[in-house]
Amino acid sequence: MSDEQNPAPEAGPRPRRLTYAAALAALEGLALVAGGIWILVLGVTGDPDDRQQAITGGVTLMVLALLPLLAARGLLARRSWSRGPAVITQILALPVAYNLLQADSMAIPAGIALAVVAVAALVLLVNAETTRALGIRGPGNASQ
Q1: Which residue in 4, 50, 65, 88 has a CA-CA distance of 20 to 30 Å to 95?
Q2: What UniProt keywords apply to this chain's record, in alphabetical order (predicted)?
Q3: Is 94 part of a structural domain of the chain?
């Protein structure tokens, strides 16, 4: 990409909104890692219905954690590419939160927490200050 399509981020201190968005993405990534380890340990040490499925599920969650963790690192480094994976992570978190809210168990508080984090992160990521800090220009502003 040329510099015109992807300008350099603004100089100066990193906006708090950008730092908060990175923290929320990192929090989600760490939660996925913790969930993956939990499922993996239960699959290996417990008595699951299908041990192979439990191990695969745990490993899958840990691999999926890479997306928000890399996005968080990119946001902290003010890389414009990082907003896309961070937004995608939040959009994917919303249906998961909805499904957790439909459960009749202790998953309901987790669903509420996930929904709050996902919506807050989305608001922070689409904020104009965050967009400027990442050097992202809106449509029709490429020539400015």
Answers
A1: 50
A2: Membrane, Transmembrane, Transmembrane helix
A3: yes
